[in-house]
Specification:
Number of strands: 17
Strand content: 5-15%
Helix content: 40-55%
Structural class: alpha/beta
Oligomer: single chain
Largest sheet: 6 strands, parallel
Radius of gyration: 27 Å
Shape: globular
CATH class of the largest domain: Alpha Beta
CATH superfamily of the largest domain: tm_1862 like domain
Number of domains: 3
Bound molecules: cobalamin, iron/sulfur cluster
Distance between the termini: 61 Å
């Protein structure tokens, strides 16, 4: 019997360290490819070298010696390409006969650079990888007469030349792919591939096929979510480029989620010209809590240069509508764009103050191969692909623009960020919500979640943000004006506790526990408040409901010590 090939699919870390849990996420595409291979009988493992800062090559060498792979596929972006190539070289040394394949956005647009910079790469699969990779693996499994020229969508070296086989057609029926959730658990997922947009800084349209968008059915996508929920996932990041572009499909998906009564939350990304009240209502009821929009700039002139000439009124309307349905609107702004000046940054600041986003991210414009801006810089002779031999992650646009420089561009970013963080408390204090009765509990949940970011979350520890306690108190109170909400009762109690007003805290907790007697956080907080008022016996009753949880053990011990007359500690904190 011919031995089936053993395959490793690898996500390597970016060159620069990153903060936050996003940094180490395995690309969704590897789950799609992995599940198709497993379904076809291949032993396949996904190796995530980006989930910590350990030396990726040393870590990979250890894994290789243990796994003995026949085929290794790397998912490669420009920022992680250098580590991917180092790992490929290491693999070649240990297993000279292994087949090494590169796929993903970077090799798709830089095949020549990769095959020359790293001769250890055997094949590049540009674009959508599932079918091509499966066909390649099947061919490699043949004992003899292996030919690769007939496999569509492959790039490899023939002698000194690059050989490209005929292009691989895009997968028409995405539902025909294997559900990645059958074999893996993850939080990032997408219903569509492609975007109808033409933004000059974005590689997505060219990568997925200009103006071609393909979709999973709403049913397939809802099934995917449901399987992941069964695996314990409760929050999702829907990563479609423009999630709301097909309104009926999104509403159908939301209805399927509601029908299943899934207790989940999710974020999505869209464009301000693809939003209306019907879709927001459905999304909110189905668990959507955050919607991000690429605003890019407050200057109409720059938005046009960036290929996103959406009218100002549309942007303002989309933000107002989104927040009014209790979905946190997040804005992406870009600075350091062609034509950027102090005046255009002021226009971005003015727009920021009009749309009042509750979260905002400010990106310095960088350009990648596959984008219009990169190609036009190449055409003007400002750069060549040899640039990528340097130890850089990406290419800031300002480096190619004589009107811009680092100092100027940094100041632009600083101005935008300081404006946002100085104002976000007032944005949060001035939210208008729609008056729809069935949304009241959702409004309460939205306001209390936002309050938490000011009292205990991201904004609580940011020195640029003002009036955190006042803002969170106002939001918690407002939440309770819509409906009882456990997070609001807990948050108010914790604010009181912070001021050492333990009896006031106890009053809020009593109200919360009247609605949710079994809620762990409310019970533990109540126990801690009671300890601080010297009521150890009563406190113990609250902790004992959760005696199997590690966080309650220390409190239970202290209560026992106090009740039996041992040492007293002065203040107890959560
Ligand atoms: C969601 C998303 C994220 C999420 C989650 C990623 C995830 N877990 O899937 C988060 C927020 C974590 C993220 C992070 C970053 N991202 Co991102 N991200 C995206 C986005 C919007 C969607 C990705 C997606 O889910 N696509 C759908 C799946 C099915 O496709 P896929 O994963 O690309 O896989 C397919 C093909 O690429 C190919 N393929 C991929 N890997 C392999 C491997 C082999 C062996 C083969 C054969 C084929 C193959 O086949 C797959 C199936 O068809 C894309 C834009 C886009 N629309 O594609 C940007 C995008 C991939 N991100 C990008 C960037 C730059 C980043 C960051 C570097 C940002 C930063 N500065 O920190 C980081 C780090 C990424 C890294 N590991 O290097 C760029 C990459 C550009 C480039 N040329 O390098 C993109 C293209 C956006 C852009 N600017 O144009 N990202
Ligand atoms: S930036 Fe967004 S809207 Fe523009 S082309 Fe890319 S994915 Fe589409």
């Amino acid at each position: 019997m011919v031995k089936q090939k053993k395959i490793l699919l690898v996500n390597s870390p970016c060159l620069d360290a990153r903060q936050g849990e996003d940094a180490g996420m395995v690309p969704l595409g590897l789950y799609y490819i992995g599940s198709l291979l497993i379904e076809n009988g291949y032993t396949t493992k996904i190796i995530n070298l980006a989930d910590n800062r350990e030396n990726p090559v040393a870590r990979f060498q250890k894994i290789l010696k243990h796994e003995h792979p026949d085929i290794i596929g790397f998912s490669v972006t420009n920022p992680n390409r250098l580590n991917a190539m180092d790992c490929a070289r290491a693999a070649r040394k240990i297993f000279p006969d292994a087949t090494i394949v590169f796929g993903g956005p970077a090799p798709t647009f830089l095949s020549e650079y990769f095959l020359r910079a790293c001769p250890d790469i055997d094949f590049i699969i540009p674009g959508e990888g599932e079918i091509t990779f499966l066909e390649l693996v099947t061919e490699l499994g043949k004992k003899q007469h292996k030919t690769f020229e007939q496999i569509k969508g492959l790039i490899f070296k023939k002698g000194d030349d690059l050989f490209k086989t005929s292009p691989r057609p895009y997968i028409k029926n995405l539902d025909g792919l294997v559900h990645p959730s059958k074999y893996f658990a993850y939080q990032f997922l997408a219903m569509s591939r492609g975007c109808p947009g033409k933004c000059s800084f974005c590689g997505s349209p060219k990568f997925w096929g200009n103006s071609i968008v393909r979709f999973h059915s709403a049913k397939w996508f809802a099934d995917e979510v449901q399987t992941l929920v069964k695996k314990g996932i409760t929050h999702f990041y829907i990563s479609d480029d423009t999630f709301t572009m097909d309104k009926e499909r999104v509403i159908e998906f939301c209805e399927l989620l509601m029908k299943e009564k899934l207790d989940i939350t999710w974020n999505a990304i869209s464009r301000t010209d693809f939003i209306d009240e019907d879709i927001l209502l459905a999304m909110r009821k189905a668990g959507c809590i955050q919607l991000s929009f690429g605003v890019e700039s407050g200057s109409q002139k720059i938005r046009k240069i960036l290929g996103k000439p959406i009218q100002q009124e549309k942007i303002i309307e989309a933000f107002a509508l989104t927040v009014s349905y209790g979905i946190l609107p997040r804005a992406y702004f870009i600075y350091g764009s062609p034509g950027e000046t102090d005046q255009t940054i002021q226009e971005s600041i003015d727009l920021l103050n009009t749309i009042k986003p509750l979260s905002a991210i400010f990106y310095l414009l960088v350009i990648f191969p596959g984008t219009y801006l990169y190609q036009s810089a190449v055409n003007k002779g400002l750069l060549t692909d040899d640039l990528w031999h340097q130890k850089i992650e990406d290419l800031p646009f300002f480096e190619m623009d004589t009107n811009l420089d680092f100092t100027k561009v940094k100041a632009f970013g600083d101005r935008l960020r300081s404006e946002f963080y100085n104002k976000v408390d007032t944005f949060a204090q001035n939210i208008n919500l729609v008056d729809i009765k069935e949304l009241y509990p959702f409004h309460a949940e939205f306001l209390s979640r936002l309050a938490m970011t000011f009292s205990h979350g991201e904004y609580a520890f940011d020195t640029r943000v003002k009036h955190q306690d006042k803002t969170s108190k106002m939001l918690y109170d407002r939440a309770l004006s819509y409906a009882p909400d456990k997070r609001a009762f807990l948050g108010l109690a914790m604010l009181m506790q912070k001021k050492r007003l333990f009896n006031n805290a106890i009053l809020f907790l009593e109200k919360g526990l009247a609605h949710w007697p079994g809620n762990k956080d409310l019970n533990i907080c109540m126990g801690v408040c009671l300890m601080n008022t010297g009521q150890f016996k009563t406190a113990l009753q609250f902790f004992q409901k959760f005696k199997n949880f590690s966080e309650t053990n220390q409190y239970i011990n202290i209560c026992h010590q106090q009740i039996t007359g041992q040492k007293h500690e002065r203040e107890h904190k959560l």
